[in-house]
Amino acid sequence: MVPFLRDHFGDPGRLHDEGRVTRVAVEVAREQVAALFGARPREVVFTSSGTESVDAAVYGALARGAPDGRYGLVTSAVEHSSVLDAAHRDPATNITVVGVDHRGHVDIGAMIDVIDDTTALVSIQLANHEVGTIQDVAPLIQRVREQGGDKEVLVHVDACAAAGHVSVDFAALDVDLCSVTAHTWGGPPGAAALLVRRGLRVPPLLLGGSQERARRAGFEDVAAIVGFGAAAAELAAPGRLAAEATSAAELTMQLTAAATAVDGVTRYGDADHALPHLVCLGVKGVEAEPVLLALNQHGVAVHSGSSCSSETLEPSPVLEAMGVDADHSLRASVGWSSTEDDVEAFTRAFPGIVERLRALRGA
Fold first, then answer.
1. pTM of the model
2. At 213, which helix (H) or strand (E)?
3. Measured between alpha carbons, how far is 128 from 115 in angstroms, rounded to an integer?
4. Which of 56, 198, 327, 330 is most exposed, with the fewest beta carbons within 10 Å of its own?
């Protein structure tokens, strides 16, 4: 990324030499990202974040369906907040939210049943961003495809939590739109993408320029895009993704075993069908904030609830939808640079912190 922060500032949309240098860099990165996610380069639309990618998918699909009177969105109760927030932008949107079980699995049959002639978009996560539960999206996608008809229902998969941790193959998913981001697996902040099925045209969220083949206006963040591509190329190397997933799973197993050995600590989500790098823990009798702050004093950084809303320290809507205790939860994750020493720092500190806080509550 450094040369594009220090030396190369040309607009990729210009024909001069400086513009051609950055244009080549952006297109190489597009090929690298496409290769990692099983897409064609022309299907990759760069965005500034996963949230923008989701917003663009929801907005574009609903705007596309509106002329035919299709204002309907079908989604689940555990989606990222950006899905519902984007849909609520238009008061005319008819939003149907389908529930989940106590492990965070979406009722796929219920989602299929509520799709009707007014539905423009079905949006579902590939894996949950708080508890890690992986969804079986194939039956839903197959049913939408079988329905067909003149009024095409689009399918959007939010793979932001899954990208870089498990295989995400856009072509194999057979969906219309897919959101991925870079920062959760070692890429730079400020880089993400919306994968758009070849031949599909949806109105863009951002207007004012013809960048990204008129699908997303604005001067591209070249350095971030280059970093996104470089990280994707590293992870696309033979065996790299599987090796990182195995390493992450081993670390989270150690973390989970140590945490759940403490009385009153449970793991939320589906441990057998979950992302390898993420664990959500329920801590009975202790609110999340003091545990989080105490762990921070020991050099351990964890979240409470969603990574996008942890600053508010509000109860997690995802956990509330699952019917578990949303007020006493921690979200811990490991990454490509995490080591056993990092996990040991957590396991040394966590039991004593919980014990002391419980003692204070009882005082």
1. 0.93
2. helix 211-214
3. 22
4. 198
Question: Which tokens sit at 254?
Answer: 């150690």
The residues that are catalytic are 308
Q: Which of 235, 250, 283 is the last residue of a domain?
A: 235
Half-sphere exposure of 278 (CA within 13 A, CB side): 29
Residue 199, phi-psi category: left (phi > 0), alpha (psi -120 to 50), beta (remainder): left
pLDDT score for 306: 47
pLDDT at 245: 96
Any idea what the CATH number is for the domain that residue 251 is in? 3.90.1150.10
Same domain, 293 and 333: yes
44 and 228 in contact (C-beta within 8 Å)?
no
Three-state DSSP at 237 gives: coil
- Do residues 16 and 213 make contact, with C-beta atoms less than 8 angstroms apart? no
Report the C-alpha gap between 340 and 118 in whole angstroms. 51
Residues 281 and 221 in one domain: no
Spatial separation of the C-alpha atoms in residues 71 and 314, rounded to whole Å: 30
- For residues 31 and 201, give the distance between their C-alpha atoms in angstroms, rounded to a whole number: 21
What's the CA angle centered on 101, arms 98 and 102, to 5 degrees? 140
Quick one: tokens of 28? 């190489």
Distance of alpha carbon 149 from alpha carbon 153, whole angstroms: 9
Q: Are 267 and 281 in contact (CB under 8 A)?
A: yes
**C-alpha span between 256 and 314 (Å, rounded):** 23
- Answer whether 284's CB lies under 8 Å from 329's CB: no
